Hints:
The strands form three sheets. An eight-stranded mixed beta sheet has the order 1-5-6-11-10-9-7-8, sandwiched between helices. It has two domains: 18-169 and 229-318, BirA Bifunctional Protein, domain 2; 330-435, Anticodon-binding domain (Rossmann fold, 3-Layer(aba) Sandwich). It is built from 16 helices and 16 strands. It is elongated. The chain has helices spanning 18-36, 49-56, 61-66, 86-95, 139-156, 171-186, 194-199, 204-207, 216-220, 231-246, 291-294, 309-318, 340-352, 370-379, 390-395, 413-425, and strands at residues 39-40, 46-48, 68-71, 78-81, 104-113, 125-134, 162-167, 252-253, 265-272, 281-287, 302-308, 330-334, 357-359, 384-388, 398-402, 433-435. The protein is α/β, with parallel strands linked by helices. 38% of the residues lie in helices and 19% in strands. Strand 15 (398-402), helix 16 and strand 16 (433-435) form a beta-alpha-beta unit. The relative contact order is 0.11. The structure holds adenosine-5'-triphosphate and magnesium ion (MG).
Amino acid sequence: MAEKISAVKGMNDIAPPVSAHWEWLEEQLRGLMRRYGYRNLRTPIVEPTALFVRGLGQVTDIVEKEMYSFEDRLNGEQLTLRPENTAGVVRAAIEQSLTYDGGKRLYYMGPMFRHERPQRGRYRQFHQFGVEALGFAGPDVDAELIVLACDLWAALGLSGIALEINSLGQPHERLAHRASLIAYLEGHAEQLDEDARRRLHTNPLRILDTKNPLMQDLVNRAPRLMDHLGPESLHHFNRLRDLLDAHGIAYHINPRLVRGMDYYNLSVFEFVTTQLGSQGTVCAGGRYDGLFEQIGGKSVPAVGWALGMERILELLKEQGRLPVQPTPDAYAVVTDTGSLPRVMPVLRSLRQAGVSVQMHACGPEGMGSMKSQFKKADASGARFALIFGPSELEQGAVAIKSLRGPRAVADQGEAVQQLLKPLADVESWAATLTAI
Length: 436
Ligand code: ATP
Ligand code: MG
């Protein structure tokens, strides 16, 4: 046998039955987007490396160590598999002039790539669903996005997801805070770990979000960005809070919530759960009013969030909220391969009429015994077996057997009618049905 080829580490196949969970989640998300008036934007998975370096910031975890970057062999261009999609959405919005006639509410869904250590809830190819509201400056849209996320948890039947919010103010306010933060941390240099020492002069704000237990005390007592915010930033934050209160949405103000990417300003937020171990952030986002200009467009205010689909699915599983697997309405049992030319078109008509039918497939030895066909029919989860035996075929009829619930087909009223109607519509298969 040839040597086996495995998938890339941290990149997973999504096969049945799990893929049905994904499809269900995607449907829920699309329904929510319809209700909130957000429209789909699809951008390429590969973007110029410069987009992320400029958009996310040079000293972010993603740009420093997580990107899958490569050179295009043909023209030497530096390219990167997208590690996130906000920068791509903004690039597309600039390139396609999407906001020329006012704000746009957009969403996307798809794979992202980060070179991280694979573990529960952390993969190298993972999937994000994200919403981006472009061209809206007010806290009303910040609130809309948070409310929308809360509606999603409700629609999915999820509980135990807590909301944390903070304000990062504006760049000049962050600069003032930065100076006092650096001075404070320098005063406690002996307590800084290696990561913090490295970031002290490049990205000190990120030190606040350290996971190192030995540094928690230090960062808890650090100067707060919130205390450096001017009246306008505070007003934006307080309006957001009022709107969340008006919806009865509970939140916790976390002054250490700073987010990984440089592009955020004003409102930032995360939805976290304690039920997924250390990968507890399921959804995160904020306002990024400076990003359009940073990647070469005119100034456009914007806000958005992204959720990790794997983490949401894991949480659904944890809380027993995954949907039951979809099963066919009917399974066709066919006794003889010779009858396939008559039977298959009937099954096709049923499907065209909206009935889902799985047909027993013949092997090299023919259709197989009735017993083995019924075993398969049962395993398919179908509600009914449609039996195309010699006597039925002779009469131009089909026998129906209930595989689930009440044994007698007669007791299954509406479900049987749904099958009978299309069957009756197929010429020469008039509804002479034997129920067994
Ligand atoms: P973390 O702190 O967990 O690394 P992050 O701040 O890097 O998260 P974002 O860039 O904000 O994450 O991405 C938004 C969401 O995407 C996260 O909240 C998480 O649910 C999900 N996510 C991020 N990285 C991964 C990954 N490597 N594998 C699976 N999901 C991920
Ligand atoms: Mg990360």
